[in-house]
Amino acid sequence: MATIAERGLDGLTMAGLGRDVGMSSGHLLYYFRTKDELLLRTLEWSESRLGAERRALLARPGSARERLEAYIGLYLPAGHRDPHWTLWLEVWGRSQNADDDARARQAAIEGAWHRDLVALLAEGISRGEFRPVDADRSAARLRALLDGFSIHVTVGIPGTGREQVLAQAAEFLDETLTPGAA
């Protein structure tokens, strides 16, 4: 992740990474077989850390809306060239040629985010904080919105910085989840 943050994925070579971690590129290939596997394993490692943060923020006291806003804050990239999101974009791009196992591992990561969001929406609905909606469908729509905005933030599309996206997401939540909203 440090190499991705410093050089971006274009600058990530097996030889360069090997130098950074004190291994030969051959050793890296022995452990990871391919650059695709190295990238996916790095993503899994990064997601395991984010997953722990996500579970902690979802378990803390507060309203469902407050925790939903915290979830969104964790989900979104920190800014342009965010290394975690840069890695996601690369893995997504390589997925079309990935094998079934790699796609299943990626789906497992995405599934954890989705299940947690569905549970949070269902909790907010049951408490009357959110209007009655299909929690699974709403979670899919919200994640698609966040993914799209996250791509814009990560690649640096003007007018789509993190603060603008947080404001857009809050507006979307007001329009779709606030009881009595049209």
Q: Secondary-structure element sequence?
A: HHHHHHHHH
Main structural class: mainly alpha
Q: What's the helix count?
A: 9
**Annotated CATH homologous superfamily of the largest domain:** Tetracycline Repressor, domain 2
State the CATH architecture of the largest domain: Orthogonal Bundle
Distance between the amino and carboxyl termini: 43 Å
The CATH topology of the largest domain turns out to be: Tetracycline Repressor, domain 2
What is the average per-residue confidence, as pLDDT, rounded to a whole number? 88
Q: How many domains would you count in the coordinates?
A: 2
Percent of residues in beta strands: under 5%
Task: Tell me the overall shape.
Answer: elongated
Specify the helix fraction band.
over 70%
Please summarize the sheet with the most strands: none
CATH uppermost class of the largest domain: Mainly Alpha
What would a concise description of this structure say?
The chain is mainly alpha-helical.
Describe this protein's structure:
By secondary structure, this protein is an all-alpha fold. It has 2 domains: 1-33, no CATH class; 34-177, Orthogonal Bundle (Tetracycline Repressor, domain 2), CATH 1.10.357.10. The chain is built from 9 helices and no strands. It has helices at residues 2-7, 14-21, 25-32, 35-59, 64-75, 83-95, 100-126, 135-155, 162-177. The mean pLDDT is 88. InterPro entries: BetI_C, Homeodomain-like_sf, HTH-type_TetR-like_transc_reg, HTH_TetR, Tet_transcr_reg_TetR-rel_C_sf. GO terms for molecular function: DNA-binding transcription factor activity; transcription cis-regulatory region binding. Residues 13-32 bind DNA. Keywords: DNA-binding, Repressor, Transcription, Transcription regulation.
